[in-house]
Predict the structure.
Amino acid sequence: MRASGAVTRSTLRQQIADALRDEVLAGRLEPGREFTVKQIAEQYGVSATPVREALFDLSAQGLLESDQHRGFRVREFTVADYRSMVEARTLVIDGLIRDVFQGYGPGRTVARAVVYQDGLVSVRRRAQEASRAAQGGDLDILIGYDLRFWRELGALVDNAYINDFLHRLRVQAWVFAVPYLRHDASARDWLWHGHPELVAAIMLCDRDAVCAVMDDYNAHALSWADRLAAGKLARPGVPVPAAADPAAPVAPLPAVPGSGDAGDAGDPGPACSGDPEPGFPGA
C-alpha cells in the first residue's frame, strides 16, 4: 500500500506540473504572475506536497522563479534571452549535423536512410501537422505538434542529454514568444513551417539540404527577435496581481484514483521557499 501511494503521489505531481506547464505555454499564466503553493493546491483540490514538488520541477526547468517569502512567479524572459536560446540551439544542432553526416558519402545515403526510416515515420506525421498548423495560424495546435516533432526527431540522435537540453530551450522560447504572437495580427507570417522539408532532407541524407533548412529556421527566429528589438511589436501587458485574483482560471487537473491520500493532507501549504514538448519561434 505504501508503494502504491508513492506512485499515486508521483503521478499527481507530474499531472500538476504538466497542467501548469500547459498554462504557462498557452500564456494563461502570464510572465510575472505570482502565486503560492496553497493557492494552486486549493485550485486543484489537492494537498500541498505534490503541488510544491511540481512547482520545484518547473523551477528547475527554468519556467518559474521561487522566492522564500512570496511563493512562485512565472519567469519573464527578454529578447536577449530569446536570442541566446536560438544561438545555443544553433551551436548544438550544428555539432549534431556534423556528427551525423561524418563519414557518410554519397554512396552510403541509402544505408543511412534505412537507419532512420522507422523513426521518421511518426516524425513525418508530426512535421505535416506542425506545418499545417503554422500555415493556418493555429498557435495552440502548432505548439503541441512542434514540440513533439523536435522531441521525436532529437530522439534519433540517441543522446538523451542533448535532446532534453534542446527541448528545454524550445519550451522556454515558446513561453517567451506566445504573449507576443497572440496579440500580433501578422503572427501567421512569422510561424515557421519548414518541418516537412527538414524531414525530406534527412531522409535523403542530404547534408547541404539539411543545413539550408536549419539556416532558414534559425534566421527566421533571429529576424523575429530583430522585429521585437526594433519595437515593431510591443509586449502585451495584462498584469493580474496574485493577491487581487488568487483563483484565476487554470486548466482542470485530470482525476487520479486515490489522489486524496497523496502527499501530506495535513500540510497547510504556506508560501514556500522555493517536465516538456511545437515551429517557430519557440523551437
Remarks:
- The first strand starts at residue 34 and ends at 35.
- The two ends are 42 Å apart (CA to CA).
- The chain has nine helices and three strands.
